[in-house]
Amino acid sequence: MNIIKTLLLLSALLSGAAIADISVVVNPANANAVSADELSRLFLGRASSFADGTKATPLNLAEGLPARDEFDSKVLSRSASQLKAYWSKLVFTGKGTPPKELVDDAAVKAAVASDASAIGYISSASVDGSVKVVATF
After folding, report:
1. pLDDT tens for residues 14-32?
2. 45 DSSP 8-state letter
3. pTM score, two decimals?
4. Rounded CA separation 113/62 (Å)
């Protein structure tokens, strides 16, 4: 009986640890501040530039990753299925293209570090000096 209780406790602790803060990152040369509303507009294809008018290139993590689910929920206030339907409609009508998807935090960091127009999000634990954090959720 103690083994079952221990396993349940470990499971609860590990599932809570899987949910981490999400950091929105840009190239260190990017001086723009970005609000939650601006993030939503950028990642939903309703805006294509930062506040200063420079081009913005949003980058998504691949579907199913915990950080992607957190970002979709906290920033875009939508589930994965809602976003899939949203983008399907825009693509079908020719009114939009979803942000490029990258496989993991390292790929997002590398893309943002090499492109001053890029904006993406990663787990806060993955942040390093190659990118600049503009928001945390």
Report:
1. 444 445 799 999 999 999 9
2. T
3. 0.84
4. 19
- Domain 21-136, classified CATH 3.40.50.150, yes or no: no
Contact in structure between 117 and 54 (CB atoms under 8 Å): yes
Find the length of the chain. 137
Q: Using an 8 Å Cβ cutoff, are 72 and 79 in contact?
A: yes
User: Which tokens belong to 48?
Assistant: 């294509």
Asked if residues 46 and 93 have their Cβ atoms less than 8 Å apart, the reply is no
* Alpha-carbon gap, residue 96 to 58, rounded angstroms: 13
Locate the domains of the chain by residue range: 21-136
Question: Which pair of structure tokens corresponds to residue 126?
Answer: 């993955």
Tell me which residue of 34, 116, 112 sits closest to 127, measured CA to CA.
112
Is it the case that residue 85 has pLDDT exceeding 70? Answer: yes
